[in-house]
Amino acid sequence: MDKIRYNKFRQTREFLIRHSMLFLMLVSLSFAVIIGISLYYKSVPILDQQSLWALLTGESWKPLKGQFGFYPFIMGTLWVTGIAIIISLPLCLLAAIYLSEYAHPYVKKVVFPMIDVLAGIPPVVYGVWGILVVVPFISTSLAPHFVEFSTGYSVLAGGVVLAIMIIPLMISVFIEIFDALPGGLREASLSLGATNWQTIKKVVLRKSFPGLAAAVVLAISRAFGETIAVLMVCGNVSEVPHSVFDPAYPLPALIANNYGEMMSIPMYDAALMLSALLLFVIILAFNAISRLVLIRIERNFAL
Amino acid sequence: MRHIRIKRIEEKIFKGLMMAATLLIVVSLFMIIVAIVKRGLPAMSWDMVSKIPSGGFYLGKEGGLLNAIVGSLYIVIGSISLGLAFSLPIVLYLNLYLPEKSRLAQFTRLSFDVLFGIPSIVYGAFGFTLMVYLGLRSSLFAGILTVTMLIIPILIRSIDEVMRRVPKEMKDAALSLGATRSEMIKPILRQVAPGIVTAVLLSVGRGIGDAASVLFTAGYTDSIPTSLSQPVATLPLAIFFQLSSPIAEVQDRAYAAALILTFIVLVLSVAARFYSRKFSKNKI
């Protein structure tokens, strides 16, 4: 009898554990939906008043007058992200090819941990580095050759800091993609007399192009959302930048800088929550697309 | 012949470029650390890590950063415990109960990959709306909640990575002995313990260094909080706020705080490396 009761107890326990785990998982999965809905709910007041299009293309940001134009901030984000990608993409591509195709295992053993460390450094420390090194360099050494005056707090400073910050992510995804390529492809090309570089150019890069594109999209979305480091070096002037030495004011910085006063001005909090919603939706979409592409690649090449 | 020479030269040029790029990345890491240490070290003192700010701290008078150091630790300890309470059951469910190729498991893994990419400022803004909705003020509790949301995807991704590699035979053996699935949890957890430690260290690093998520939710204070409902200072915000001060002594403290934070993160990263050596795969 006792044994039967004990087994009943085990079955009940099993049932309870199993379903509470499933419940926890569904709760966590609904995070994304809840975040989206609550940010949307918070930004409804301003969407009721002005159309989304008008908000996105409006150029003037004067919360006290009720003018909320996101255009300068969107342009600021695009400029900074663009520069970061332009700097980091070639670097990462070259380094990733070197590390996966040429480098001696010993080199990998030394370099990979360093990339890990680079990935672990907090954004605010990158910001401090930007202020200590990048900003003074731009204002005293670089900018005088091109423009009359720049404080150094500029699109370029933001781009350089961001570039360094997205390097670890980009390199590690690139290397994963190269490693996923079947070795037979390379051997076939090499046996036809192609050099290593020719093989890379004509076989490896061409074959892994979709993956590389997905990795870049992943890096772009990381750069889009980066807040503190960019905020510290970008200058934060709400005008559309016209050169790399102009200050910019990316969207995340806008949210971070103004939360203190947003409760006292009507519509201000709705406008800021709308920008958080914009970031959320764009980054969610970018991430989902690139992850799907990456998963498909992994599946196709897994032999 | 000419053709072959060109292709050799091309090979050399690109190999050189690649090595230069790799070198540049490694060097920039050193440059960052050197810059932080060079500026932060002169500002360091024993007071910095052992005292809370006293009157006139923000005018350059006495005091230290103990409030921010302890605050960051509180936040991280709280959110790691809460995060593990969520992520361990989820990963176990994914690996023990769901079949390898189930749609739900694939969807869940994809979702947490995507959630991992959501920037901390969005979590911060969401945490803030949640706070307002619940009628909370910025507090240790709200900070912990927000950082927990931030690190759950990291915990899940990296623990899952290790648990997927538990041999299927181990599970089969347990089942064939008549164990229920929930009775397999203990031996499996023991098997992946080093992986869990690595995951925790990784997420401590992320949680302790993130400023944007606590900016709205944890507030800032000069004292060490004694309850969950009090605001709390954190290291990243200490850096951020003090750096914007016009007074040189206060800025020095920001650099000292940056040095402390970098040191903590480096130690964590080395420790994670050490623990994960067995399980390592180049994944960030």
Description of the molecule:
The complex is a heterodimer of chains A (303) and B (284). Chain A is mainly alpha-helical and 303 residues long. Chain A has helices spanning 2-29, 31-49, 52-57, 71-102, 105-120, 123-142, 155-180, 183-191, 196-207, 209-225, 228-233, 251-258, 268-301; strands at residues 61-62, 67-68. In chain A, 46% of the residues are buried. Chain A has a two-stranded antiparallel sheet with strand order 1-2. The radius of gyration of chain A is 24 Å and the shape is flat. The mean pLDDT of chain A is 86. The longest helix of chain B has 39 residues, at 2-40. In chain B, helix 3 (66-97) packs antiparallel against helix 8. Residues 280-284 of chain B have low confidence and may be disordered. Chain B has 284 residues and is mostly helical. Chain B has 2 domains: 2-43; 48-279, MetI-like (MetI-like fold). Chains A and B meet through helix 1, helix 2, helix 4, helix 5 and helix 6 of A and helix 1, helix 3, helix 4, helix 5 and helix 6 of B.
* Element-level helix/strand string of chain A: HHHEEHHHHHHHHHH
Task: Write the element-wise H/E pattern of chain B from the N-terminal end onward.
Answer: HHHHHHHHHHH
Cα radius of gyration of chain B in angstroms: 23 Å
Strands ordered across the widest β-sheet of chain A: 1-2
Helix content of chain A: over 70%
CATH topology of the largest domain in chain B: MetI-like fold
Q: Quick one: overall form of chain B?
A: flat
- State mean pLDDT of chain A (0 to 100 scale): 86
CATH arch. level architecture of the largest domain in chain A: Orthogonal Bundle
Query: Which spans of chain B have pLDDT < 50 for at least 5 consecutive residues?
Result: 280-284
Number of domains of chain A: 2
Number of helices of chain A: 13
CATH domain topology of the largest domain in chain A? MetI-like fold
CATH architecture of the largest domain in chain B: Orthogonal Bundle
Distance N to C terminus of chain A: 53 Å
What oligomeric state do these chains adopt? heterodimer
Within CATH, the superfamily of the largest domain in chain A carries the name MetI-like
Task: Show unreliable segments of chain A.
Answer: none
Largest sheet of chain A: 2 strands, antiparallel
